Protein: Tetratricopeptide repeat protein
Organism: Micromonospora halotolerans
Amino acid sequence: MESQSTVGADAVARARELALAKQYEPAVAILREHLTTHPDDAVAWRRLAGALLGCDRPAAAVEAAGRAMDLAPDDVVAHRHRALALHMLGRHPESYADAKRAVELAPDDDEALSLLALNVLNVDRDPARARALARRALTANPDSLPARDVARVCRRIRRTTTTTALFLAAAPAGMALMGLWLITYDTGSAGDRRWITWPAVAAGATVLLSLLLGRSRRTAPPMLTPPQMLATMSTSGIAAAGAAYGGTRSLPAAGAVGLVALVISGGYSFLLLRAARRGAVAEKRKRAVRSADRNS
């Protein structure tokens, strides 16, 4: 007759096979039954967490991974599972801590590095450091799908950040100059109006280019820092004021146009910050579920 420990090991192995075949619910059932008689089996708790992630049940996965970590504090996979589950729940600071601990335990674990990179984007909003972590993950495992996902997101963020900065500088200046052009259409010489017309046209072309190149904003939101936003706002105001002075030779008019451009740019920046706080939740959950498939 087989010993109880052998039967338990067979049950955990069978659950692992089911999870690898993406049959998560049967795996969860087997592991829960096993854990009723083997509550101190850290590997079973960890594999239960992975199967629950595959079922898109991150809250239950957090609890299961936590039990595994209590029993085996140095279990890297358990830390990864809980970090991923917390990430799926939007609890990014907690996920950051677990992913950081997983990297401390296994500095060359490509999935732990990738999870930490995702949390660096969400918590620190630091694409440069996230790219560095993704490169480390790809050095450890050139075929790492999670690391490739993060590297792709970082590239998109860099592109959308650049195009958004162009938009924040050009659109408000163009709007303010077009308003001035309409107001002064019947006054001043054609030569003076060219100082307003051509900068407004250039601003419009820049806006169009930024919109065409920044189509990934929904899945890779821009990450402009406050100093970068201030720089784009200042550029917009100064450019608008300079063009307005060239067209009107009036300092008060130039100052008013520059201020209007500055205010419009500030409004756009505020809306951008609000959108950035919300994040791309649907895309993040998709990446998390794909990673759960691999981690189970």
